[in-house]
């Protein structure tokens, strides 16, 4: 086991909570500092409204939780999720009929899982609370950090019974894990110590949440108005509407559209334009969400931007590392933001463990002094963090790019014949020629644990092989047919070609 260290985790979202669990299981003294109040406390504001309530959890997130050494966690997750086996595409035929078309995610029948983000976060906090070497500090905002002296400062925002907030405390640490989200304060302070490349980009899309209420008890057999085992998509080319099921029979829906569309609709205080827009763009939605609710949600719920962040490195020296959205916030179109963040935790601790083991194996026999041991732990951590940055950055960048590309797939390509042909060919090869090891990119991302950068490389390779195969399959017969016709009807073909060339020459001269 690694030497006992003081690990300070900033941010008690899903990624910070899982990181705290991994650190605590290794026997470290863990302190978790969170800007907000405890989300399990019913007297405080419910889960932050600026985050989607229902998320798609898939293999990478599950794998990270499976490896957390807490069977209770994975049991909870499996009990609290709804499997979504595919996309349900909603649309309207030219004759005006509405249709639903199910597109399975995976030819082997695997599903992604719909989970309540707040429920998962609460469960993680409950488990952490039972561990003696973990201490929570809610309402503590990181305001400063010195990563050479391993000191950080937190503003205590609201204390029980206190009239005022604003007291500042100083905290020392061996390792700080920054899991404080897209607008990370840890990353901001880290930039003062390391030459960090940083790129942030807002895409021209805003999102807003809506709800499909459960079917009324008198209304029918099921509490769900539409299939509970699908992620529903109303593709709109320039925009889209999606719905993810919840256990209570409701669906959390999200409208993704360019800012200009929002601006037009915001001006419509009466709401007539909003329901017309939905009827025109997302056929069938107004029969699931009454127009009055649509309009109310549109005006009441925030219209939020989508940010894409890439940075490098993800650590500084032996003292700090950033994970999750703090390191690689991405647009939500691959359903991978939280999954990738949870995977960060598994990979980071895997690398830390490996270096601890290597050092233990090479350490000289006998006792070493306290400061020598602390120095050796720090240098071991520094090597591990450097390896983590080197391994994880190509993958973080790869999934950020894939997430951006998938927006086009979700709102437009799902309707394209070329997209469907490629999916069909790749899936058929995966089933009928398993030795080739072919899978769709989606399957590799959502149902496997291969590095994201390898997924991209393999998918590009498959694409090239498919194009070559198709050119061979279609082009070769055409070419051989042409050669056969030429030799069989040589005179007629040559006469025809001569005439064609003469007509072309005359046409060129005239023009
Ligand atoms: P966060 O959840 O942002 O948590 C950060 C925590 O740090 C917060 O609790 C915050 O209060 C705290 N904090 C911030 N600043 C400070 C400070 N200075 N001091 C102390 N604490 C601080 N991901 C998926 O995997 N699947 C999906 O289907 C999916 N759908 C999404 C849909 C939408 C519309 C959006 C916007 C995102 C979606 N995501 C999805 C992404 C997912 O929500 C995030 O990737 C995930 O929540 C990131 O977790 P995190 O713990 O890194 O950060």
From TrEMBL:
EC number, as in UniProt: 1.14.13.9
Listed GO CC annotations: mitochondrial outer membrane
UniProt xrefs under InterPro entries: FAD-bd (IPR002938), FAD/NAD-bd_sf (IPR036188), Kynurenine_monooxygenase (IPR027545)
GO molecular function: FAD binding; kynurenine 3-monooxygenase activity
Catalytic activity line of the entry: L-kynurenine + NADPH + O2 + H(+) = 3-hydroxy-L-kynurenine + NADP(+) + H2O
Key word Nuclease present: no
Segments traversing the membrane: 465-487
Domain (FAD-binding) ranges: 6-352
Cofactor(s) required for function per UniProt: FAD
One biological process term in Gene Ontology: 'de novo' NAD+ biosynthetic process from L-tryptophan
Subcellular location: Mitochondrion outer membrane
The protein's annotated pathway: Cofactor biosynthesis; NAD(+) biosynthesis; quinolinate from L-kynurenine: step 1/3
Keywords: FAD, Flavoprotein, Membrane, Mitochondrion, Mitochondrion outer membrane, Monooxygenase, NADP, Oxidoreductase, Pyridine nucleotide biosynthesis, Transmembrane, Transmembrane helix
Similarity-based family: Belongs to the aromatic-ring hydroxylase family. KMO subfamily.
Described function: Catalyzes the hydroxylation of L-kynurenine (L-Kyn) to form 3-hydroxy-L-kynurenine (L-3OHKyn). Required for synthesis of quinolinic acid.
Stated name of the protein: Kynurenine 3-monooxygenase
The species this protein was found in: Apodospora peruviana
Gene: BNA4
């Amino acid at each position: 086991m690694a030497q006992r260290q003081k690990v300070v985790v900033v941010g008690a979202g899903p990624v910070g909570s899982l990181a705290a669990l991994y650190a605590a299981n290794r026997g470290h003294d863990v302190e978790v500092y969170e800007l907000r109040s405890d989300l399990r406390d019913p007297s405080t504001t419910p889960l932050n409204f600026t985050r989607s309530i229902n998320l798609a959890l898939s293999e990478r997130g599950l794998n990270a939780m499976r490896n957390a050494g807490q069977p209770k966690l994975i049991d909870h997750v499996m009990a609290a999720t709804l499997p979504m086996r595919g996309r349900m595409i909603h649309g309207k035929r030219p004759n005006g009929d509405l249709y639903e078309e199910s597109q399975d995610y995976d030819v082997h029948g695997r599903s992604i899982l719909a989970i309540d983000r707040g429920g998962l976060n609460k469960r993680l906090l409950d488990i952490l609370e039972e561990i003696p070497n973990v201490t929570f500090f809610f309402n503590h905002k990181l305001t400063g950090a010195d990563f050479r002296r391993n000191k950080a400062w937190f503003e205590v925002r609201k204390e029980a019974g206190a009239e005022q907030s604003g007291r500042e405390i100083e905290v020392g640490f061996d390792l700080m894990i920054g899991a404080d989200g897209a607008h990370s304060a840890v990353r901001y302070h880290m930039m003062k110590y390391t030459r960090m490349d940083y790129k942030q980009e807002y895409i021209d899309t805003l999102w807003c949440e809506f709800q499909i209420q459960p079917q009324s008890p008198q209304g029918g057999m099921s509490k769900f108005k539409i299939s509970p085992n699908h992620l529903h998509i109303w593709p709109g080319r320039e925009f889209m509407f999606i719905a993810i099921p919840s256990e209570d029979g409701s669906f959390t829906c999200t409208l993704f559209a360019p800012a200009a569309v929002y601006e037009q609709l915001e001006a419509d205080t009466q709401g007539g334009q909003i329901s017309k827009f939905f009827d025109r763009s997302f056929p069938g939605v107004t029969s699931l969400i009454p127009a009055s609710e649509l309009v109310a949600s549109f005006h009441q719920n925030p219209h939020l931007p989508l940010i894409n962040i890439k940075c490098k490195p993800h650590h500084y020296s032996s003292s700090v590392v950033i994970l999750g959205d703090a390191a690689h916030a991405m647009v939500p179109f691959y359903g991978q933001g939280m999954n990738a963040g949870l995977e960060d935790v598994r990979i980071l601790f895997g690398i830390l463990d490996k270096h601890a083991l290597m050092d233990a194996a090479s350490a000289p026999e006998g006792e070493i002094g306290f400061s020598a041991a602390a120095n050796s732990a720090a240098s071991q951590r520094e090597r591990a963090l450097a390896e983590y940055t080197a391994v994880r950055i190509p993958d973080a960048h790869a999934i950020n790019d894939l997430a951006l590309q998938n927006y086009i797939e979700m709102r437009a390509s799902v309707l394209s014949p070329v997209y469907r042909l490629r999916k069909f060919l790749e899936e058929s090869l995966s089933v009928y020629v398993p030795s080739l090891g072919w899978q769709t990119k989606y399957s590799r991302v959502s149902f496997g644990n291969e590095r994201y950068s390898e997924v991209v490389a393999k998918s590009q390779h498959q694409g090239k092989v498919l194009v070559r195969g198709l050119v061979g399959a279609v082009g070769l017969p055409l070419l051989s047919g042409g050669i056969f016709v030429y030799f069989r009807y040589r005179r007629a073909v040559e006469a025809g070609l001569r005439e064609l060339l003469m007509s072309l020459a005359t046409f060129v001269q005239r023009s």
